[in-house]
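Hi all, posting the design record for the shared folder.

TITLE: backbone redesign
STEP: 1 of 1
STRUCTURE INPUT:
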């Protein structure tokens, strides 16, 4: 998706330089949708981390 976003940005810049605003708007909407999707994933991952219990740094074996 990052490669797709890079391509969308390149297309937006190209159309802007040519004054083709209608095409820019179409690509900007797709880019916005992708960015919102990525932000939602990042936010849900952050929320999951806050729900998980803290992990102890020691990983030694129990001795009997």
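Okay, here is what came back for every position:
SEQUENCE:
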């Amino acid at each position: 998706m990052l490669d797709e976003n890079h391509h969308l940005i390149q297309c937006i810049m190209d159309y802007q330089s040519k004054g083709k605003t209608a095409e820019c708007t179409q690509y900007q909407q797709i880019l916005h949708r992708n960015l919102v999707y990525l932000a939602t994933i990042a936010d849900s991952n952050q929320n999951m981390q806050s729900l998980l219990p803290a992990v102890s740094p020691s990983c030694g074996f129990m001795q009997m």
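COMMENT: The mean pLDDT is 85.
Let me know if anyone wants the other runs.
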